[in-house]
């Protein structure tokens, strides 16, 4: 059936689970991962999700007429499988502060989950809330007035203040963004914001809000118009907002859930006491390789991860980066040879079109968190960290082209002043830039 003639996907009345989870930043990934796992785990229909967009209202406009239903296409190398996911039961634009406040402060709400992108946390290089950010300042100054908060920290603290006032009790916040120690970062972000507006509220949050850390993994590119056609053919429905993802998924969580949670382990999630090695494995090997390819692959004329990995030069650079990272990922439960083999298979999936330009967004933050730690660990061990340095050199080469007139040393200093201050390192990176330009 073509999308022009297919009936729209809509929810049957009376089939929505009660809201017990509020999600901020509904996009493609949350629907490929935690909303899908919630639907699988929640066989009794007790854990409905109320989803809010972060900035744009697009997903709310698309999903609300469908009662929150959407199609998830699992795209393997050999074909597509479509399923309709029903765990999202209400969708709102992020600007709907009335709905947000009512839902976060409801005693029935047990969890807040987040996919607001790395930039959405509004943290500075030191991991604390960036109070020099004009949007953060505006939310701090407007707190407690009629002005609606606009940043994620502002909205979260506003909602938690209402929860404290309503006496709804403790809850958990689960960050599902690709940041190391994402639970700790949420805790710091909330503590910094609340302390600046109401120290009593900061104490209440510290005692009543559990920040759960997670490592989240499922490659989910942006949906295309062609995907909407594919869904109509597979299901017979017109879905304005389907999501396409890969077969692989992984979710590791660590923390407390004072008001309960879905039995996510029944759907494949793992609960651990020490999440740090799992986070480092995923962020350095998967996201680090993505970040490397986002610069090096584009420099060599490639558009997608699969195209770049098919280039033996890029493949060698990725493997060399993994060798460096692997020396600092020593916990046996990480099963690195297996994880690396899976990564190659996932990156090579020719039917997942993961654009390097999309992955390159907010590159500076990503390099700081995924490449620099490997470079520092290698140098601390007395080695050069050549492969990590090459990823930085590739990024700096593209930046120099995009910012004519700026010296390479200025560009590197924006990333990390140490890259310029240490003469040996600076010379190595500039040497690698010359090598990349010569190719
Ligand atoms: N796509 C993936 O493969 C994948 C996998 C693992 C983790 N993640 C995490 O999920 C995040 C979102 O990915 P996605 O694929 O859903 O992207 P998306 O573009 O589909 O959705 C992003 C959501 O974040 C919101 N947002 C963007 N900037 C914001 C800001 N400054 N403040 C508040 N909200 C903001 C958007 O409005 C939207 O609701 C990633 O940044 C990453 O941290 C993604
Ligand atoms: O937007 P980011 O960099 O956090 O990540 C881009 C991709 O590396 C990322 O979305 C991966 O596909 C994902 O982390 C896989 O689990």
From TrEMBL:
<dbReference type="InterPro" id="IPR036291">
    <property type="entry name" value="NAD(P)-bd_dom_sf"/>
</dbReference>
<dbReference type="InterPro" id="IPR013328">
    <property type="entry name" value="6PGD_dom2"/>
</dbReference>
<protein>
    <submittedName>
        <fullName>Mannitol dehydrogenase family protein</fullName>
    </submittedName>
</protein>
<dbReference type="InterPro" id="IPR050988">
    <property type="entry name" value="Mannitol_DH/Oxidoreductase"/>
</dbReference>
<dbReference type="InterPro" id="IPR008927">
    <property type="entry name" value="6-PGluconate_DH-like_C_sf"/>
</dbReference>
<dbReference type="Pfam" id="PF01232">
    <property type="entry name" value="Mannitol_dh"/>
</dbReference>
<dbReference type="InterPro" id="IPR013131">
    <property type="entry name" value="Mannitol_DH_N"/>
</dbReference>
<feature type="domain" description="Mannitol dehydrogenase C-terminal">
    <location>
        <begin position="274"/>
        <end position="401"/>
    </location>
</feature>
<dbReference type="GO" id="GO:0008926">
    <property type="term" value="F:mannitol-1-phosphate 5-dehydrogenase activity"/>
</dbReference>
<dbReference type="Pfam" id="PF08125">
    <property type="entry name" value="Mannitol_dh_C"/>
</dbReference>
<keyword id="KW-0560">Oxidoreductase</keyword>
<dbReference type="InterPro" id="IPR000669">
    <property type="entry name" value="Mannitol_DH"/>
</dbReference>
<feature type="domain" description="Mannitol dehydrogenase N-terminal">
    <location>
        <begin position="20"/>
        <end position="265"/>
    </location>
</feature>
<dbReference type="InterPro" id="IPR013118">
    <property type="entry name" value="Mannitol_DH_C"/>
</dbReference>
């Amino acid at each position: 059936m073509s999308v022009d003639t297919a009936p729209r996907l809509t929810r049957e009345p009376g089939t929505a689970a009660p809201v017990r989870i509020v999600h901020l930043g509904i996009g493609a990934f949350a629907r490929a991962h935690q909303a899908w796992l919630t639907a699988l785990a929640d066989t009794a229909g007790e854990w409905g999700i109320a989803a809010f967009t972060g900035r744009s209202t697009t997903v709310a406009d698309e999903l609300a007429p469908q009662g929150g239903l959407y199609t998830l296409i699992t795209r393997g190398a050999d074909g597509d499988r479509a399923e309709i996911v029903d765990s999202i039961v209400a969708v709102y634009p992020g600007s709907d502060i009335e709905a947000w406040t009512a839902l976060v402060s409801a005693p029935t709400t047990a969890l807040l989950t987040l996919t607001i992108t790395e930039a959405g946390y509004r943290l500075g290089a030191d991991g604390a809330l960036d109070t020099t950010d004009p949007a953060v300042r505006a939310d701090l100054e407007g707190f407690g007035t009629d002005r609606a908060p606009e940043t994620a920290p502002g909205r979260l603290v506003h909602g938690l203040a209402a929860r404290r006032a309503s006496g709804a009790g403790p809850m958990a916040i689960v960050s599902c963004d690709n940041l190391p120690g994402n639970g700790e970062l949420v805790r710091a972000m909330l503590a910094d914001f609340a302390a600046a507006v109401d120290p009593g509220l900061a104490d209440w949050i510290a005692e009543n809000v559990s920040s759960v850390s997670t490592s989240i993994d499922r490659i989910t590119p942006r949906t295309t118009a062609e995907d909407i056609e594919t869904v109509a053919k597979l299901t017979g429905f017109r879905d304005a907002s389907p999501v396409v993802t890969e077969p692989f998924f992984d979710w590791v969580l660590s923390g407390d859930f004072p008001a309960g949670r879905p039995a996510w382990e029944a759907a494949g999630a793992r609960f651990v006491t020490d999440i740090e090695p799992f986070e480092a494995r995923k962020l350095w090997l998967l996201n680090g390789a993505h970040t490397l390819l986002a610069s090096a692959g584009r420099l060599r004329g490639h558009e997608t991860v699969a195209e770049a990995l098919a280039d033996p030069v890029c493949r060698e650079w990725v493997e060399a980066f993994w060798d460096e990272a692997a020396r600092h990922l020593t916990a046996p439960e990480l099963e690195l040879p297996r994880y690396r083999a899976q990564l190659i298979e996932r990156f090579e999936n020719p039917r997942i079109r993961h654009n390097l330009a999309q992955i390159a967004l907010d590159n500076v933050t990503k390099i700081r968190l995924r490449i620099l730690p490997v470079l520092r660990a290698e140098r601390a061990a007395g080695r050069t960290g050549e492969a990590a340095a090459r990823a930085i050199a590739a990024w700096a080469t593209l930046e120099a082209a995009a910012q004519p007139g700026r010296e390479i040393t200025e560009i590197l200093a924006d990333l990390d002043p140490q890259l310029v201050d240490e003469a040996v390192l600076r010379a190595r990176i500039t040497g690698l830039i010359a090598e990349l330009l010569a190719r």
